[in-house]
Structures are given as structure tokens and as C-alpha cells.
């Protein structure tokens, strides 16, 4: 059995969840692997990000999100409201704030010491619900999904823009 790995970099914009269609990169990784039959696992190593499989939608809102993504945001916000205050969720607690403030690169996570930069409990919970990975069939050296099935990476963290990683692992023969 052959194992092939690739890592892609993705940029989130902050302020709202960032949805990225990574289907082309997944298809390219499968092609690069040379594997004809097996599986492809797509993984986010980030705790506020998810990988999910959904139908491609041709309609977009004014922010550039597909209608299904906007619907997903609306549904998730009903059960997990956006964290806009310190008191909405238990996380982050005082010990977490203090731990982050003690990091050598604390300014990266707390610009100007602003603790609001850690108000992302909602992003963690939403990512937990959707999950951090998906496994796909590789058939005849191609992504084994229907023509409208697309692979998406989402960063639910609205606190700031970031560069994110996504791992693509293809296994088989």
C-alpha cells in the first residue's frame, strides 16, 4: 500500500466564517499520488476549523458565501450563538487568558493585550459539531464523489485573519 501526503495553505479572512472550496486541491493531490484505488482523507489540524462535504451551490450572498453556507451559518448560530461577550460562554476562563498572556508570542494571539481576541468559543463548538476531517473514496485515480459533491474547508474563527493548514492523505494502490 502507498501513502501520499500533501499539505495546503489557506487564508481565512476573520470577521465571518471563511468557507473555501478545496475540491481542486484534493483532486490534484489524488492525481499527484498516482493511487488508483483507495481512500483520501482531508484533515484540518485546527480546533476552530472543519472539513465537510456538500453540494456546490451556484447562488452567493453579498459576502460571497454560497447559499448553503449562509444557511449553515444561520442554523449553527441558532444553536451556538457567536461569542460577542465574555459572559456568553464559560470558555475562555481566567487561567486560559493568563496562560496565553504568558506565551512568548502572546501579541500574536492578543493584539494590544485585547482579551476579546480569545472570544472564539463558538468557533470551537461549531468545528466540533462538523468535525475536522472527511474520508473519500478514490476510484480509478479520481475523487469518488458525484458531480455536485464538493469538499470545503471552513474556519469558524471570526477573531482575525490567519493562514491555515489542511492535510490531504491518499492511501491505496
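Q: What amino acid sequence fits the structure above?
A:
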Amino acid at each position: 500500500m502507498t501513502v501520499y501526503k500533501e499539505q495546503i495553505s489557506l487564508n481565512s479572512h476573520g470577521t465571518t466564517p471563511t468557507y473555501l472550496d478545496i475540491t481542486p486541491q484534493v483532486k490534484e493531490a489524488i492525481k499527484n499520488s498516482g493511487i488508483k484505488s483507495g481512500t483520501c482523507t482531508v484533515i484540518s489540524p485546527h480546533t476552530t476549523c472543519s472539513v465537510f462535504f456538500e453540494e456546490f451551490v451556484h447562488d452567493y450572498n453579498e459576502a460571497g458565501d454560497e447559499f448553503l453556507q449562509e444557511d449553515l451559518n444561520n442554523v449553527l448560530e441558532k444553536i451556538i450563538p457567536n461569542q460577542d461577550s465574555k459572559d456568553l460562554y464559560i470558555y475562555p476562563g481566567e487561567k486560559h487568558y493568563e496562560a496565553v498572556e504568558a506565551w512568548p508570542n502572546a501579541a500574536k494571539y492578543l493584539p494590544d493585550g485585547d482579551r476579546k481576541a480569545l472570544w472564539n468559543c463558538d468557533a470551537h463548538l461549531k468545528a466540533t459539531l462538523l468535525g475536522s476531517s472527511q474520508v473519500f473514496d478514490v476510484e480509478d485515480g479520481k475523487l469518488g464523489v458525484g458531480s455536485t459533491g464538493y469538499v470545503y474547508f471552513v474556519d469558524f474563527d471570526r477573531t482575525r485573519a490567519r493562514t491555515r493548514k489542511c492535510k490531504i492523505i491518499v492511501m491505496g494502490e
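Q: And what stands out in the fold?
A: The radius of gyration is 18 Å.
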